[in-house]
Every structure is written in structure tokens, then in C-alpha cells.
Amino acid sequence: MQGFFQRFLTIYRPLISKLNELLGEYDLSYSLWQVIIYLKTNGPSSLVDISSHYNIEKPSVTRRVHTLEEKLIVKEIVTKNRREKIIQLTELGEEIYQLCREKITKLEYSVMKDIPFEEQVNIFEVLPKILENITKEKEK
Fold it and tell me: Which SMART domains match (predicted)?
């Protein structure tokens, strides 16, 4: 479908701006939120796991994690393997996750208002398929 990328990208920036505005109340950004949500979903994880999941460079994840450590939102778990840094959410991180999740859920409902539920489900199911196709394309 010609023009799909342009249409998708026209909503991406405004959405990230809205998320950054919402998360800014907690001195967070969307890039920091990505680490928080990954840890909430997957539990204690390595920086390599996070960088692989989001397909971003490990130094970028390291900077994000360092910022979250300074804010006492994540902490390192001591392991026998000193080469691999494992992090997890702190109690404060869990609290901030819950507060932000509630606000993000409200935002999700507001941006999806007046869109029939079936269409919402279709979008929700199609986006991971697009990501899978993009990933397959990279492997060629």
C-alpha cells in the first residue's frame, strides 16, 4: 500500500511528543519508559536483552539505565558474572510504572475514541506482523 509509511510516521512524532509530555511529570522520557516497561514485562534483565529487544545500541541502553539508576527507579542485581549487568525495577520504579501506566492507558483510550473496537483490534494485531516483516527484510 503506497503511502503507508508516510501515514504511519505522521502519527509517530505527535504520539511520542504526547508520551514525553505525560512522562515528563515524572522526569521521564519515552526512551527511559522503554527500559521501565521492558523490565516490568520481562523481569530482571541484562542490558544486552534490552538493546536486542528494541534494536538499539548497548551504549544507548547503558546511558538510559544510568539515568534510571540515578533516579532510583532501577537497580543492579549482583551476580557472579561481572561482565553482564542485570537490572530490575526498584519499589519506586514499580510505583512510577503504575502511575504512568494508568495515564498512558487513558491516553490510549483518548486517541482511539470513535474508532470501532474491531478496527482497534485489527491495528493491534497488524502492527506486530509489520515488525516481523521488517525484521525478516533486515535478515536478507
Answer: HTH_MARR
Supply the pLDDT for residue 39: 98
Count structural domains, the chain. 1
Range of the domain at 72: 4-115
Q: Which among 98, 85, 107, 87 is positioned nearest to 14, based on CA atoms? A: 107
Q: Provide the residue type at 3 as one letter.
A: G
Q: What is the pLDDT of residue 1?
A: 65
C-alpha cell at 96: 512510577
- Which residues contact residue 9 at a Cβ distance below 8 angstroms, ignoring those fewer than 6 apart? none
Q: Taking the chain, what is the end-to-end CA distance rounded to the nearest angstrom? A: 21
- The verdict on residue 109 lying in a domain is yes
